[in-house]
């Protein structure tokens, strides 16, 4: 039984790794689409979102099968539950990437003001989101608490950038009222990126939850992965 459950856990880890790559590419492409106003690239993101949704359902089903067939306990159960929650957060990241792509598709302006984008720090925000995704993926694969917790400071930076967006855009719209509709809708891109940071933080917390349990088990302070009763 132990060998069977180990192979199932490895399969789940492989699947979530593939889901991570898929979602990373979606976020990356949606970011490039909004920076360049590339509607064809944005349309590709929208179409590929179906693949993200299908992959999420498959992983959910495999998690349910693992629990039903092998009844994991302790650290194994924590790992399976972490995979389930990480999967949900990754799917929501895919939805946010699709939402950003839809802004590009619906936007009537052929291009965004390049100087304004610099002031808004959009490229920096996109880079931070992608970095957070890379770090959390490494944190799970390497079972690194240090990597997982480093994500929290990056999320604070996203919050700071997002907090400044409304005032900068309000000033810009006053000076360029003809572009009001475009830039009012543009606010949604920053909100989605800020939400993306929240979901990646949720993923980091799940990784910390799993690693903490494993450390406790190997330190001899747990029985089947749970603290011993005093």
Q: Into which percentage range does the β-strand content fall?
A: under 5%
Head-to-tail CA distance between termini:
31 Å
Tell the overall outline.
Answer: elongated
Number of helical segments?
Answer: 7
Number of strands: 2
Largest sheet: 2 strands, antiparallel
What's the pLDDT, averaged over the residues?
A: 93
Structural class: mainly alpha
Strand order of the largest sheet: 1-2
Radius of gyration: 20 Å
Oligomer state equals: single chain
- Secondary structure: helix percent: over 70%
What is the H/E string? HHHHHHHEE
Outline the secondary-structure elements.
Blueprint: H1 2-36, H2 39-70, H3 74-106, H4 114-120, H5 122-142, H6 145-175, H7 180-218, E1 222-223, E2 226-227
Antiparallel strand pairs: 1-2
Helix pairs in contact: 1-2, 1-3, 1-5, 2-3, 3-7, 5-6, 5-7, 6-7
Description:
- The chain is mainly alpha-helical and 230 residues long.
- It is built from seven helices and two strands.
- The protein has helices spanning 2-36, 39-70, 74-106, 114-120, 122-142, 145-175, 180-218; strands spanning 222-223, 226-227.
- The protein has a two-stranded antiparallel sheet.
- β1 and β2 form a beta hairpin.
- α1 (2-36) runs antiparallel to α5.
- The longest helix is centred in the last third of the chain and has 39 residues, at 180-218.
- The two termini are 31 Å apart.
- The model is unreliable at 222-230 (pLDDT under 50).
